[in-house]
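When time allows, look over one protein, given below as sequence and tokens. The question is which stretches look regular and which look disordered:
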Amino acid sequence: MDKILQNGQDTDKSRLLVFMLASRNFGIELHKIKEITDLLPTTRLPGAHRFVKGLGNLRGEIIPIISLRERLNIHGDEKGKQIIIVISKKVNYGLLVDKIQGIYAVDTRGSESISSIFSQDAETSFLIGVCKVENSDVILLDSEKLIEIN
């Protein structure tokens, strides 16, 4: 399933980093990703939101580490061993995910909105929609809104 794109291929499509979390596929636009690294030691922050695992030191840059499983209210044991470092306007941060699937070219313009299927009190601002990648549904995430709290 790992399809790494070569330069010049599928230039009319967006490139997504697709990763797995609790047997579901999620994606973030590749230009929002700084790097992927292994699990970092974290320092817990008192009073932080439950999904903030703490602060990590990535070669001198202090970044918050966010459990995407807890941010999306996905129950189960934390299996994350990889961290995606996301470039954000406010602060770069790390997302703890279960498994990286690969980089794919996707036409995100044809993605379907999913916010209408949630109850009105459910936070869906960080969900962009759903698209198909190799016959699998991928939930598209807005990396800027993931760290905002409504």
Residues 20 and 38 are 15 Å apart (CA to CA).
